[in-house]
Amino acid sequence: ALCAVSGATFLYHDYCVIGAGPAGLQAAYFLQQAGRDYIVFERSHAPGSFFALYPRHRKLISINKQYTGKSNSEFNLRHDWNSLLSHDRRLLFRRYSRDFFPNADAMVRYLEDFASLLELRVQYNTAIIHVTLEKNEQAWNGHYFLLTDQDRKNYKCSSLLVAAGTWVPNVVNFPGSEYVEGYETVSINPEDFTGQTVLILGRGNSAFETAENILGVTNFIHMVSRSRVRLSWATHYVGDLRAINNGLLDTYQLKSLDGLLEGDLEDLAIVKDKKGKLHITLRFYLENRNISAGIDSITLPQDELDNFATRAPYDRVIRCLGWKFDFSIYNRSLRMMPGKGNIKKYPQIKPSYESRGTRGLFVLGTASHSVDFRKSAGGFIHGFRYTTRAVHRLLENRHHGVPWPSTVYPITQLTNSIIKRVNEASGLYQMFSVLADIILLRENATAFEYLEEYPIGVLAELEMQTGRKARNGLFVIIMEYGRNFSGADKDVFYYNRAVGEAQHAWQSNFLHPVIYYYKSLPTEREMRLRPPDWPLPRPDAIHHIVEDFLTDWTAPNAHILPLRRFVENCLSTDLRNFFAESCFLFAFTHQKLPPSCQQGYVRMQGLLGSRELRQHAAQAGLLQDHTHTDSAGDRAPDSHHGSQEQLMRDHGIPVHPLQHLVNAKDE
């Protein structure tokens, strides 16, 4: 739609998406599926332009597992970190690469196909250079977003989704920083480093990836950063140093010249000598000196401390300090502010991914990682594909009155529903401690409503954000690591690290499901005052399903039985399934029937008995074997008659003449 405002012509769309990287295309897919009016702006000539250049050495560190032994496509996404979500089976990343760590060119090809096969509306070669607001009472959010591109074309949108990633290189300025090469331009040919001594600034995957490439040809490599190295297997955060890149740690600890140092980069200075070698000194030695006066007149640290660690001159210094969000295109009226501390590279957003400064502006993809930085996977494709879907569902409810998708089941299916989801759901598994399944209980706990993958940071706003009612209590299901199991200094391989017994499930260390029960929806205040390191406020009851070596939580005794007992205790009900005979007996002997009898037997529903089923029940001691006559002489010696009576007494059922109809619990 075209509209003219004060002489300028604006092209109008309900939704504008900035950036056609993975998050922008994922958002476009959901908008297209819902039939919304949207446009994606991409400054390059093709989608995923970041991956056309990065990583420089072309090996992605996102895993592409071809085989899991399962055919469940939802489960398999737990181990496919590259595919975007779609209905099209052709668009699974394993069709684009067989490598466990794929080449970045495969990602570029994949994103091109994702955009073209699904016919997403992407406008290429369009760089948005300015974004501002126009106040308007009729607009969805009280204002329109006005966007201007490099050709001075104007666009107007009701909702703005920013999926531009973090692509501005982090640069540290210090005396002599002009001698530093950037990761974005440094040579990737190892032969260019033959016989050289190299200093790398930074300690993330890009720094170690650069080192790994030249490890075999350099004299030695030193790496300087302000913080200690964080290994992803200790922190359980995939953005920390991954094993595939950490060869330099070996050569450092196995005394092979390479080394790691900690220090503040802003205190450094680099001085070049007549031979072109680079010497490291400290900024305060230069405070009163003219740096151009020549190296001879400058004090070097080794002049005072002759065993100074970086006294050897370097041939090259390479900066690998990561990237930050581009704030420059947003007008002040949008109040797009950087975060505080270690998340200052990201814009400030709420746990709903909406900007703190402007209603209707949502940040998607890598740039939204401030919500779970160094905690979960929200900065990576295998995390933000789910958070993008969550944002889309929030928008559908807010602007189009489409409530959050949910399914209503009878209460007898509660344990089954939880077990099914914790065993296959990929969004819960990848976005652990951030996205949760919510079970809303109906009146008298006769039924429940199941909502998938809701952002728990906005749990207090659930009714407003989803259009669903939570009047009768709720369960929240999330995945968590053990409280003290993640950290740069943790030994995650210690001897008794795994918990096997269900009664010690709360001490589980590895990723495992945790179920929180609330009698009423937590308030904003309770969310704010929750204990540190707790994803949620203190619940009325909590249950940990014990960790499992195979991440397969289907063991009848270790996993399902404790879960069922927990749910029964929360709801004061009996969720066991009974044979018709038992329900018949309960109808005569109890005032209140268990839900499985109410919703099955009383309505004449249930499994029709067959000879095999009866035989199985008789062998398990759950039913009397009617194939034998019931006289003492004819009864088989291994008859279950005695155990039958015992079972009835265990459940407080009086033993009386109807006992041959009885069947006790079917566990």
TrEMBL record:
Its cofactor is FAD. It holds the Pfam family Pyr_redox_3. InterPro entries: Auxin_biosynth/cation_transpt, FAD/NAD-bd_sf. Residues 627-667 are annotated as: Disordered. Keywords: Endoplasmic reticulum, FAD, Flavoprotein, Glycoprotein, Oxidoreductase, Signal. One of its GO terms (molecular function) is flavin adenine dinucleotide binding. Residues 627-653 have a biased composition (Basic and acidic residues). The keyword Glycoprotein applies. GO terms for cellular component: endoplasmic reticulum lumen. Probable flavoprotein which may function in endoplasmic reticulum associated degradation (ERAD). May bind non-native proteins in the endoplasmic reticulum and target them to the ubiquitination machinery for subsequent degradation. Interacts with SEL1L. May interact with OS9 and DNAJC10. Interacts with TXNDC16. This is FAD-dependent oxidoreductase domain-containing protein 2.
